[in-house]
Amino acid sequence: MQPTVARLAGLAASLAPVAPSVEQALLLRRLVQDLDPTQCKLHCAVWNGSDHPLDVFARSWDEWVGWNTYRPAKDVFNRRFIFSLIQFYDEPDHWLFGGAFEVVGRRPTPYSHAYEVELRDDLLPGCIGRLKVRYRLPGRATRRLFENTIDQMEVAEILPRRFAGKPFPGHDSINISLRELGVIVAQQRSDWRGALEHMKGVYVIHDRKSGRPYVGSAYGDTGIWARWEQYATTLHGGNLDLRDLVDRQGDAYVRDNLVFALLEFWSMRTPDDYVLEREKYWKRVLLSREFGHNKN
Q1: DSSP one-letter code for 24
Q2: What would the 3-class secondary structure string for 143-170 be?
Q3: Best CA proximity match to 55, nearest among 90, 99, 95, 89
Q4: Number of domains in the chain
Q5: What's the CATH number where 187 sits?
Q6: In the chain, at which end, N or C, are there fewer CB atoms within 10 A of the end residue's CB?
Q7: DSSP of 42-99, one letter per residue?
Q8: Contact partners, residue 157, CB within 8 Å, separation at least 6
């Protein structure tokens, strides 16, 4: 079978618009002609209340496969194949292809990893973690009959590389949750680490539920990467007020609602006194002592 990624170029060319102003969608069905939809269940993986599946996919393949072996009360994966899609963070109608699995064993035990699955590399080869699909989930059910959904799915794009977390957006464009930061730190992403490891800076952490800010800084021998790594590990970075927030609201709350951004950043040659003065300035501007999590 011709590799799927290679086939995309030919399919795109065959679907050239009849006029410059007309665009014709590339339906997913064109790429999965080797798969009988009536033998397949669609799995639309969404946030489960504690984890986002895109984070899970980026940090651990085995953990992601586990999402496709779990049986709730009903036998939801009751067909030969599972076609898995992963919802994007801020794009609810865009999904990442997470693999096609063959169910080779079932147990009747609800609320357990009752399915034994094997990845089918021959179905959409080279597309796991790269193929993005556009699809509007019509309701709350996340396991659906594939034949009822496949013609509603369009190929949105093929990523140049397998998805491994958010790429570094630039120092002045960072807007990332603690949960996303944790995935990046766990992977030791070279683009993020290389950009932040040898930089001093002043940063702000906002609680997007309450709006309360915390202003901090990285100085001395500690670059921004090492300082933020402490937050990813401890969830509070040693700050007493943030530690209290973790105790009161729980780990999931702070992972989802604490959002990081850089206010200013400099080379490691910048004097520490200057960094600390700028930190004080931003505390005054953002009123983070009066209304936020800063207590000094």
Answers
A1: -
A2: EEEHHHCHHHCEEEEECCCCCCCCCCCC
A3: 89
A4: 2
A5: 3.40.1440.10
A6: C
A7: EEEE---SS--HHHHHHH-HHHHHHHTT-B-SS----SSEEEEEEE-SS-TTEEEEEE
A8: 132
Domain identity same for 123 and 10: yes
Q: 216 Cβ partners below 8 Å, 6+ apart?
A: 202, 203, 204, 205, 227, 237, 239, 279
Contacts by 186-195, CB closer than 8 A, 24 or more apart: 186/59, 186/232, 187/58, 187/59, 189/164, 189/165, 191/167, 192/168, 192/225, 193/225, 195/168, 195/171
The answer for residues whose C-beta is within 8 angstroms of residue 107's C-beta and 6 or more apart is: 71, 114, 115
Per-residue confidence (pLDDT) for residue 174, from 0 to 100: 96
58: containing domain:
4-158
Measuring CA to CA, how many Å separate 32 from each of 84, 116, 209, 253, 288?
Answer: 13, 23, 42, 39, 53
Say what the pLDDT of residue 167 is: 85
Q: What is the pLDDT of residue 1?
A: 41
Question: According to the model, what pLDDT value does residue 5 have?
Answer: 54
CA dist 57 → 10, 85, 86, 139, 271 (Å): 29, 11, 8, 23, 41
Residue at 295 is within a domain:
no
pLDDT at 17: 39
- Are residue 150 and residue 11 in the same domain, yes or no? yes
**Segments of the chain with pLDDT less than 50:** 1-2, 9, 11-22
Determine phi and psi for 253, rounding to 5 degrees: -60, -50
Q: Which two tokens stand for residue 88?
A: 């994007």
Q: Is the residue at 292 inside a domain?
A: no
3-state DSSP percent of the chain in helix, strand and coil, to 5: 35, 25, 40
pLDDT of residue 208: 93
135 and 201 belong to one structural domain:
no
Q: What is the pLDDT of residue 7?
A: 56
State pTM to two decimals. 0.69
